[in-house]
Amino acid sequence: MSVAEVLVFTGVGRAFERREVPLPERLSAGEVLVAIDLATICGSDLHTVEGRRSAPVPCVLGHEGVGHVVASQRLGVAPGQRVTWTLADSCGHCSPCSRWRLPQKCEHLFKYGHAAWGDGHGLNGCYASHVVLRPGTTVVPVPDGLSDGLVAPANCALATVINALEVLPDPCERVLIQGSGLLGIYAAAWLKCRGIEEIYCVDLSAERLAAMPAFGGQPIVAGQAMPLVDLVLELAGTSQVINDGVRCLRPGGHYVWAGMVHPQTPLDLMGETVVKGCLTVRGVHNYAPRHLVAGLEFLAQHQQRFPWAGLVSPPLKLAELDLAFDLTRQRRWQRVSVRP
Ligand SMILES: [Zn+2]
Ligand SMILES: [Zn+2]
Fold first, then answer.
1. For residue 48, how far is its CA from the centre of ligand 1 (angstroms)?
2. Residue 265 lies in a domain
């Protein structure tokens, strides 16, 4: 096949446009052409489609995916290999990349699923039959035993959670997770596998909390009494939960903020509370390649331990992407998947 099928986003309120584009005839050094086997719809894609997050239009959205290599100009990456990849492409030379261990803050950062149509080969997102991975993108092999549905959200949601939980307070025996979406589910499972027994999860919706026990989390409906914990993990996306979180922290506790990725997050917090509580507050955005590698190892090790299969919908056709977004709005699944 010499053409790729892409579903192009052209603006809020418009149906996706199906287009065919020629596959690149030649790849540059370091580039990898991947045929996408499955992509999932992340919350941030829904934000873009509904106009709460800006994107250059036209563009190909979608950054969570798994596929196999069709052509490669990179040593160690061969056609036929099953892979996933970091959602950010980084230069490897600037200060964030080389000195601060924050390649996701690269001065020349490129993010799949957020790029203008005319950028590079145009195959920049996962709602397509193919994507061209750039030289600064880490390509991670996927073990055969892991299903596409299990792997697709790993390069966004799971890797971000692993970054958020990379540094734990010592001791860390009790954790409170704020928010019970897919990131909250991953966080509970990851902590459970690290041997942490008391993992609480708070959410406004009792219905959304229903999945937590199967992944090791004990549900608390907002408003109920909260336990004192060593670590609070904010995945709720709202600053309204911050004072509740601070109140739950023991002296010397850690608070990790990872959900508040938009500007409507004003704080009403006394500096004194952080100082006298000896608290550590850590912001986490996206992740570095090592977190994605750890995520795949985690899935391979624990694929039988949790009911992962119920999180991701059976695949819809890529051409049914509008329908897939409708299904995402219904929140029946943590992720809706599409297959080219
Ligand atoms: Zn995402
Ligand atoms: Zn860089």
1. 11
2. yes
pLDDT in tens, 19-52: 999 999 999 999 999 999 999 999 999 999 999 8
Ligand 1 centroid distance, CA of 224 (Å): 30
92 and 182 in a single domain? The answer is no
Q: How remote is the CA of residue 287 from the centroid of ligand 2, in Å?
A: 14
For residue 101, report the distance from its CA to the centre of ligand 2, in Å: 10
For the CA of 100, the nearest ligand:
2
For CA atoms 172, 206, 260, 227, the dihedral sign is negative
Q: Could you tell me the distance, in angstroms and rounded to a whole number, from the CA of residue 250 to the centre of ligand 2?
A: 37
Please report, for the chain, how many H helices and E strands are present, in that order.
Answer: 10, 17
Segments of the chain scoring below 70 in pLDDT: 1
Which ligand does the CA of 111 lie closest to?
Answer: 1
Give the distance (Å) from ligand 2 centre to CA of residue 136: 9
Residue 207 domain-assigned (yes or no): yes
* pLDDT for residue 1: 60
Number of structural domains (the chain) is 2
Q: Which residues pair with residue 280 across a beta bridge? A: 254
Q: What is the CATH number of the domain that holds 324?
A: 3.90.180.10
Q: How far is the CA of 44 from the centre of ligand 2 (A)?
A: 23
- Report if pTM > 0.90: yes
Same domain, 22 and 140: yes
CA separation for the pair 76, 45 (Å, rounded): 31
Total residues belonging to the chain: 340
Residue pair 54/155 in contact by the 8 Å Cβ criterion:
no
Cα of 96 from ligand 2 centre, angstroms: 6
Residue 258 domain boundaries: 160-283
The bound ligand whose nearest atom lies closest to the alpha carbon of 64 is: 1
Helix axes 157-164, 289-302, angle to 10 degrees: 100
In a domain, 165, yes or no: yes
